[in-house]
Write a structure and sequence with these properties.
InterPro entries: HNH_nuc. With about 425 residues, the chain is α+β, with helices and mostly antiparallel strands. Helix content is about 45%, strand content about 10%. It has 15 helices and twelve strands.
């Protein structure tokens, strides 16, 4: 711990309060026209300025223009940056600044994430002194959740960026924090590309079979996405007209949030931080966490190439009948049947059996938010390359050639492997 560092668990409000002016003075109200910002927006401004990102382009509820044309470079920032070098994972470079900015832009609870990052960086006395020099509190917050800051009138965001990134501890903590969410959240979500698994047990087989049958009844023996009819439909079920179908195939029930999430303590913690709700990992084997898909559709879904987003029709209500589902496209080259859906097109679940729960809107929105983070930061492309390298290891074994590609990251993930295959 750095000399003079704060004690673990000390609220950020108490760390910053000494010598940090509040926004109550008459003089400050008159002359300081800088906006009062949440912690998430403070870090978004810092990372945007350092990475050369146009902070005005991002609305957390919409996709920025040009998403499909340049998803991995939408922020127009190089991986190599003068303020903060990327971290390496299995031989691939990941932009820290892009990833932090994306997490705080598209995360469902950005202030929880920003507070976690702030507390990491405030372990450094130099960072604490700079934060007090650059910002003042808005009012007199009683706890970290109420903390809002305002840039002082004698400083600019360029001053903030230059000063903070000069501190080794600030760069180190931000890199460690970003790498944790990449390796502990995004990579496992993509790597869990098997079907909801039985893991070879009789109970698991029965659970998977029951989930599949329920989802088939709910969606009328077809995929809502891609409109693929179940090739092995029961003879007492009448298929729709061919004009309403786009393909035929073998269907399976696939989890939205991977089945192994509750057992992986690190993934569980990061998912809760990202979503702000523990129920996300407490309802895994349920139709509300399942989609009927083909193997090809599921592989594309797990790679964050598309998702389904739920939107409230009336934001004053939050009941099951007040949601609509829309298709979100994050890759311009999807399987043919999927590609027939337009981005933003409404899709419908539960048309055949309204008694079986449709996919939970909050689960879908967690996955959609993760897809936005992965695509906007360039992480999705990097993860795809990393997993291709790991596939080579599975096929060829650990050789001098393959070891140099993935090294210890692959082996560590095997020890913590999600039970989905």
């Amino acid at each position: 711990m750095e000399d003079g560092a704060s004690q673990p668990g000390t609220p950020a409000v108490e760390i910053l309060r000494p010598e940090l002016p509040t926004g109550d003075s008459h003089e400050n109200h008159i002359f300081n026209t800088n906006p009062v910002l949440s912690l998430a927006d403070i870090f978004r401004h810092i990372t945007a300025k350092a990475a050369g990102i146009d902070i005005n382009h991002s609305d957390p509820d919409t996709l920025p223009d040009g998403w499909l044309q340049a998803s991995s470079s939408i922020f127009k920032a190089d991986v190599d940056n003068k303020y903060l070098e990327p971290f390496e994972y299995s031989g691939h470079k990941i932009s820290v600044l892009n990833l932090v900015y994306a997490l705080l832009t598209y995360g469902l609870q950005p202030n929880i994430l920003a507070l976690e990052l702030l507390k990491k960086t405030l372990k450094s006395r130099s960072v604490r002194e700079l934060m007090r020099a650059y910002f003042r509190m808005n009012g007199k917050p009683m706890n970290d959740q109420d903390l809002q800051l305002q840039l002082k009138i004698n400083h600019t965001w360029e001053d903030v960026v230059d000063g903070l990134f000069e501190v080794v501890a600030f760069r180190h903590e931000m890199r460690i924090w970003a790498r944790r969410y990449f390796a502990g959240l995004l990579v496992p979500m993509v790597a869990a590309k098997g079907t909801p698994s039985s893991n070879g047990t009789a109970t698991g087989n029965r659970t998977q079979a029951a989930l599949r049958e329920l989802c088939l009844k709910r969606d009328g023996h077809m995929t809502v996405i891609g409109r693929v009819w179940n090739r092995f439909w029961p003879k007492d079920v009448v298929p729709p007209p061919r004009t309403e179908l786009w393909d035929y195939g073998a269907l399976k029930a696939c989890h939205i949030i991977p089945q192994g999430s509750p057992e992986s303590l690190n993934l569980r913690e990061l998912l809760i931080n990202f979503s702000g709700d523990s129920f996300i990992v407490d309802m895994i084997n349920h139709t509300s966490n399942a989609l009927m898909l083909t193997t090809q559709f599921h592989s594309s879904f797990r790679r964050f190439e598309w998702s389904i987003e739920a939107k409230l029709v009336d934001e004053s209500k939050n009941d099951n009948d007040n949601w609509i589902y829309v298709f979100r496209k994050f890759n311009p080259y999807l399987p043919r049947a999927l590609d027939q859906h337009a981005d933003g097109e409404e899709v419908f679940f539960g048309g055949k059996d309204g008694n079986i729960p449709s996919p939970n809107p909050e689960l879908l929105n967690v996955y959609t938010a993760l897809a936005k983070v992965a695509n906007a930061s360039g992480a999705a492309e990097a993860i795809d390359l990393i997993l291709r390298d790991e596939e080579e290891i599975r096929e060829r074994g650990l050789t001098g050639r393959t070891w140099g590609k993935v090294g210890q990251n692959y082996l560590v993930r095997q020890l913590e492997r999600l039970p989905t295959e």
